């Protein structure tokens, strides 16, 4: 089915999120939609999917104008969408999620679960997925959850499929698999709209590329276009795509993690006997597929986990078993993985968020009083220094864009005297321009002599930032390898295979010598 | 498959199988030990002699079970020993890294109550069916309220207004039944009244995005004020509006003759039978039907429901109204099912207790029902104990159900997770 | 101050401008108990005198004095406060407004020239109720239950217990009383004065003990007991309290063996009439068996079902109580 | 590199300002009160016997019906006004303004208890346990108040502190159990209300505990004169020194929430406990402290009840429903200290006026509950009020946002720094 969007305009109050956008996706074509954060991509797709009503413009399917009052209409017309944030009910099983909204029932209105299971199995078989229809969605790895989203769309026989940033949470392997699936779907005649920030993927899979900026189409490009071309088209200026950094000059050992085990609420050992050392002025990147214990590892360092065994020495002092406040006071800076949930108080102002971790004493508290003038000054400085774009320091952070929110977290964490900096997924879901900025700040922190741990599921980021790379699998560290380790080796390690190099630590030491 | 799977395959479906660290919690054995010691104190320090009689059938029962006459002291000692043994078993279980099974706790609970009743009922007789029937009666409105609460919260709207729905149902059903002379019309009007209160909740929380807890609390005040005002201004001046009509009990042929169970469950009035139906319907409906699937989806992840074409706010509106209708039936129990006349503020906080049952029952219709029953049992136990002349002051007996609830919530339930989107309005652009 | 209110109110001709008023306690005027009966008395007196009246409810105890103040602002001539809880507010107001007359029900602690206490020796009447109950009972078990454990409630229960005991002593029987133990002062209470499921279950537990005569003390809770009796279908009976409930509640009339009357309405009426006629006095109005301020109501429907000698026995006992040969004792009784 | 914001022209700005005033929160609140009074007026008229009688022959003489409606409602509302604000029939000036002080007297416990509930709201908890906390506070304050013979300067503060401690303890139980076991505070507070009620009932009828000597009534002895809150403006006015405590408490809460580090943590945990924990705050500590302070404030209400409002001995109904009223007060005040203060005054006026209305023409006091709850409902839903009065929505930031504005000083400081920034950006 051919999809055509003509002159779509969507305004949110004064903001024009989509400004007369035209877009066509032919059957059997993957049409990539590129754009910075906030460019208006998701808005456009939500209009197409009936979630928003366009202020102007039309949607045509096979040249027939459509009117979608809601997603139900769009789905019935043959449009399926794999959302940027998964639209799955976490506590439901796969089959329940797939049948939701178009349930078959047997006598007495009872749900036809066997039918739904059969359908899930059938689609899984067709595309080579391995999805258990009775698994509870929230217990599945994100990669599988995404497959459930795809099965959901396919179970309704979608002829036009929209993928909104589907790769943001996937491993390289999963990304490759997804792209294979997309090709397969395309070959079966589906029209696909593929939204992403990642230029490599676009060039690999897209048949056509449309770039939008500030709600307008700014150009089309061929898959052969260079990264730099695409990036400057997106951002409207040239962007540095690689991280400029000097080789590390590691100092003495700063952090020693020894035999660390973390046990979660249901008794699973989520971090299993992890040991490593970290030197001053060095970035250790922790790579791995999401859900292999990286989150728990960083949380254990910060004192957020309840059941932890083993030792964590920071500059020779034990910080394991201490309260979060003690750990922060010991000089640990922490950028949590989920910034809106764990990093920021959405209703608080930028200024208030900037003092969140120092609510007990100086510099912003004296004898129980808040020092608001000092705070305002500090906040104004940080807003300038970190280029946090907002209406002012009293803007609630909930109203900031993701990239700017992340800058608030960074500004806060980097403005203390740090002896260790831990950043989990520091650039997840933020745009190229902001990524560049965040990476620069991380490297600058390293260059000040602070030891840095970066957790990332993005291999690009890992290889760009790291001085050494630790790969985690099932709670354990598979190996610690140098930064120049080839991607495919890292990929294998992420799948649990120990690296070829028999003794990677030796290798590392040679490098240091 | 070969074309699709890349060379470096991470089978994505493979959940990293982690080793499991077993945990043990000594909470249960310690609690059991405390109660065992309590029992021990009763049989030693507060020793009472004589005989305790448990009457298992009342005089009108079809099958008359014999009375159980137990020597107070002897039974106390034996039961205390059994309790101690169970405590040791539980401790052993935990020592072996195993969980104490729920049934063991249940057995312990029952035996402890028997021991306590034996002690308290020394030289007295306790009518066991009476104890249980009374518990059911006290629980009935709570169960209706809790079912309404479960539905409403499952669809994503916190229902603090159960009290208002019960009171509204009680008032309207009494008046309508008096005016029309028909109990059945009264019953239906209770449904409507509860639903109307709920609709206000729904409109304010869904359409106007007012905090749901706020609307709930305020609605309770509003309904209390309205019914009390009308009661004082209208009903007391025209007794014809508050005639006190009641449903009489219907014996279910056959079933009502089963010893103990029969009189308890099957010699009730229609409101109670409706409650049985409601429990089953809500349970099956929530977990086995399209209605329930959609309802739960809306309460867990409204965006997801929206993206598959479910009208989130309409679903919420109608189900919250339905929840109110069910709670309204509970209100009718106060009047048509139990007392007849409407009295000012006659629900006396039952709605809040029902809310507690919803949370205590972890948003599950069956568990919430059990929680409500526990509460009813504790309340009625208080009555029975004060009749047999327990030496405890009446206020402490009256406190019992509330203390039991605190202990249960603090000790057994702890942190529980409600429907993810409950309390959050769904805002669509 | 009285302002323009006619100070000539104590003359009969001006009686149509006489304004008697009443403040309820937190039970409110629909309590099927002393507040309601007090109001009934006030209404009767007012209509007899051809005057209007004002009555205000107190939602809680903190508004007693402001309610009295409101009535003072309404220029009431007589303010009747119902219940011992209003005693202190009444005392203060009476002191500050010596020109206004006050009367207070169920309290005798105020000693002021413009305050007339109205109290009742309810235990005397309840004694008769207990005796009648014991005599009527076929199962040999009678019961009583209360709203809250407060003296105005337990005084009924104490008298009732004494009556049962007296019956046992006289007839060498062993009728058992459940729901109240006079010695330990412990018993069955519903926790409040609302008719409702809780009250019904409390009554039911008494029925479960085979009690076939029950005296619920506490406003409308008798209605719940009545429902429990109807549900059990075993023909148990009730003894009403405060007024002759056979007459005030026709719906449940057939259940009432008799009632222990506490003549609040006639007492209030008498006090209002006295005051309106200019005969206000500080001398307490004390309702006793002797002055028929308390008493046992007729047996109505049960006239033919009671033992034929019972009325005579009750008369003897009544005489005995009046002349002091039979002692009725209650810790809750106001010091005589 | 700060964002370039199009500045609205002056004309446009003044128009916006005008529109925002008309549909501002204050205006909405006024309209909400009007609406609530209108609806309650309809109720009063509809249940009025004269109206009923005259409507029987409505078509014959409709004027009578309207006359009856008008008189029933106008008498009701003028007596509310007379009872709550100014008694224009009074002969003396003092008499005329004395209703104002009745209002303050009724408002006093509503405000402090409302502050307590608001505080718990801000820390993300819902304290329905006001009843229990007032009872605990009243029992403690009352006990100190009648048990010791001390000079006023010591006795009175001691009794007030006892009330605070009593309420704080009852709140602490909730915070502590929640922090230790994760139990839901809504259940705990509801249950503890009953526990407090029965406990106090027991103590009140047990000699040697709270019962007055020489009586069998479940009533405490009178508060000793040395522990009674003295009248603030002479004895002809109802208001006592407790009102100063209430004002102080409001200042304290305002300081606590906006200017103190503890309050900062309360708000942070209230808005996002996860982020607060990650930022090193003790979430459990906040739960405990917030409930202790919340209970302490509610406890003050208990103390003013027994040391000021009812000094002649109390019974177990001394909470007078204030614990629940406090919830609506806190809601109407949007959980901000001075908002709660204002809401408390309004509800105090309604209560004072309500009793006057009851005395004047027998409208049951329960109508006040109806008025109160309608006000809160309408205030919480500005769009509804706007629809009814056909007002236009304000520009940005309308909606039912309950987020607190940042403290004013911070806003001012921010304004300075941001102008500095724009200047820089322009260069
Ligand atoms: N509720 C809101 N009220 C006012 N402005 C808002 C609101 N939500 C978002 N904005 C504004 O819209 C802009 C973009 O926000 P959005 O969160 O969509 O960005 P984004 O596309 O996710 O960007 P990022 O790449 O930084 O994540 C920001 O300037 C933000 O201030
Ligand atoms: N519901 C909304 N209300 C107001 N503004 C919105 C809303 N949704 C999106 N916007 C704004 O519209 C603009 C486009 O947002 P959109 O989500 O389409 O961006 P995007 O290109 O998908 O960005 P991202 O890459 O972060 O997903 C942003 O400025 C955003 O803040
Ligand atoms: Mg997007
Ligand atoms: Mg974004």
Descriptive notes:
With 513 residues, chain A is α/β, with parallel strands linked by helices. Chain A has two domains: 3-235, Rossmann fold, CATH 3.40.50.300; 253-331 and 417-494, Rossmann fold, CATH 3.40.50. Chain A has helices at residues 41-48, 71-76, 94-99, 113-127, 142-155, 172-187, 199-205, 227-235, 294-302, 324-329, 339-343, 350-354, 372-385, 402-413, 432-447, 459-465, 487-494, 504-512, and strands at residues 3-12, 15-25, 29-34, 56-61, 64-66, 79-82, 160-164, 191-196, 208-213, 216-221, 253-263, 269-279, 283-287, 307-314, 317-318, 332-335, 365-366, 369-370, 420-424, 452-455, 468-473, 476-482. In chain A, strand 14 and strand 15 (317-318) form a beta hairpin. Chain A is globular. With 429 residues, chain B is mostly helical. Chain B folds into two domains: 12-123, no CATH class; 128-380, ABC transporter involved in vitamin B12 uptake, BtuC. Helices cover 65% and strands 4% of the residues of chain B. In chain B, the strands form two sheets. Chain B has a three-stranded mixed sheet with strand order 2-1-3. Chain B has a two-stranded antiparallel ribbon with strand order 4-5. In chain B, helix 9 (270-288) crosses helix 10 (290-300). Chain D has helices at residues 10-22, 25-46, 49-56, 62-84, 93-122, 130-147, 152-181, 185-204, 242-259, 261-271, 273-278, 283-309, 322-332, 337-361, 367-380, 382-389, 408-426. Residues 1-10 and 395-427 of chain D have low confidence and may be disordered. The interface between A and B is large, with 72 and 42 residues. The site of one adenosine-5'-triphosphate has 11 residues of chain A, from helix 14. One adenosine-5'-triphosphate (ATP) is lined by residues 12, 15, 17, 35, 37-43, 84 of chain A.
Features:
heterotetramer; A: 513 residues; alpha/beta; Rossmann fold; 2 domains; 6-stranded mixed beta sheet; 18 helices; 22 strands; disordered C terminus; C: alpha/beta; 14 strands; globular; binds adenosine-5'-triphosphate; binds magnesium ion
Average pLDDT score of chain C: 87
The number of domains of chain A: 2
Rg on CA atoms of chain A, Å:
24 Å
* Assembly level: heterotetramer
The overall average pLDDT of chain A, rounded, is 86
CATH superfamily of the largest domain in chain A: P-loop containing nucleotide triphosphate hydrolases
Q: What is the structural class of chain A?
A: alpha/beta
- Cα shape of chain A: globular
List the strand order in the largest sheet of chain C: 2-1-3-4-5-13
Largest sheet of chain A: 6 strands, mixed
Low-confidence stretches of chain A: 502-513
Tell me the fraction of residues in β-strands of chain C, as a range: 15-25%
User: Count the strands of chain A?
Assistant: 22
Shape of chain C: globular
Binned, the helix content of chain A reads 25-40%
What about the largest sheet of chain C? 6 strands, parallel
